[in-house]
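BUG: 3D viewer hangs when loading the predicted structure for this chain

Environment: internal workstation, default settings.
Expected: structure renders.
Actual: progress bar stalls at 90%.

Input used:
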Amino acid sequence: MPPVPAPSQPSPEDLLSIIRVQTEIARLGLDLDAVMALAVRACMELSGADGAAVEIAEGPLMIYKAAAGSASAQVGLSVNAEHSLSGLCVQTGVPLWCDDAESDPRVDIDACRRVGLRSMAVVPLRHDTETVGVLKVLSLQPAAFGSRQIEILKLMADLLAASMYFAARCGKDALFHRATHDLLTGLANRSLFIDRLRNALLQADREGNQTGVLMVDMDELKKINDRYGHRIGDIAIREFASRLLGGARRSDTVARLGGDEFGVVLSPTASSDGLRASTDRLIRQVQGPLVVDGRQIDLGASFGAALYPNDATDIEALLEKADQAMYVTKRERKSQAAH
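Structure tokens produced before the viewer hung:
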């Protein structure tokens, strides 16, 4: 590990910028996504980094919850804490840095090379004695961070830690729930859906299992809204979500991805026959009339399924496969209805 840089105080301009960030965090209140996004942008700008991220410790994994700059594409990524500088930072509870990823045995060199990362610094996010995650900056150049940047990171981490603490407690706190769940239905949102799917694929690899994913398109939501109004439309969405959740297993993740689009992670899935049986069960579960204010609304949906690793070996391709299957089903159902 490189020697500890001599203590150096941030400049008055740095401190004024941090005070402005603190004021903005207070204004944002419980909007955890916005707080984390603000923090990583501010860290990147104040430290002169190419990218910045907030990673939260969840069991053996470090989860990217917010990112900016060259790290933006990493949101939702899960990495093994044992093989990362961030995981070591959580374990030790002290700031760590890497001057050159090419020669530092503590980092995942393949992961660093994929994003062109050469140097980084991480500081712990702490509340009392508990470390809940890290605040990280990274650079495409070696030896980009010195004592000034590390002191800035520590000040920013102090601002973030109190807000982040409740979000990191087993996923049960209201802050975490707001950041990871759909407000209308209470289902997982897209961010948590991708997290859970990524973790399910990693688990499938470790255990030699398979994982199924479903893309679900609720029938005729626009027509319901146009005919009966959005209040009835929201009731229909909540009822549909409740039925979908009621047909899933405790180990599955049901999410509302936006509008009339839902997703389900079926983990584990024993085989293609098991995936088909689960899909058929959920189709039966969501179908049927809903009566609201004396009006009958027929609920239903088009489902598309894909199986990992049989149909695809990465998240994007797996979701695309399920999405394509859903649209095929949707066209077939419309064709049948027309006849």
